[in-house]
Amino acid sequence: MNDKRVLVFAMNAIVHLKEYIDSGEPLDLAAANGVLNGPEVRAWIEDNKILLPLRRDGKKLNE
């Protein structure tokens, strides 16, 4: 997957998260989670894990 496509997925997830913050609708949170945990994004994360920051708890994103 190319980086532009990953950015589209990330923007889509951000929009869903913003909708969740504004409305509190759990389906928006589920949609954002679904986008970020989709197979294409997971494959990109695996291929580019060195570029990704750690989570606040110190774990890597792919753990």
Explain what the structure shows.
With 63 residues, this protein is mostly helical. The protein has helices spanning 3-23, 26-36, 39-47. It has one domain (3-50). Helix 1 (3-23) packs antiparallel against helix 2 (26-36). The relative contact order is 0.14.
Brief sketch in words of this structure:
By secondary structure, this protein is mainly alpha-helical. The protein has one domain.
How is the secondary structure organized here?
Blueprint: H1 3-23, H2 26-36, H3 39-47
Helix pairs in contact: 1-2
Give descriptors for this structure.
63 residues; mainly alpha
**How many domain units?**
1
Query: How many strand elements?
Result: 0
Order of helices and strands: HHH
Shape: globular
Q: Report the sheet-strand fraction.
A: under 5%
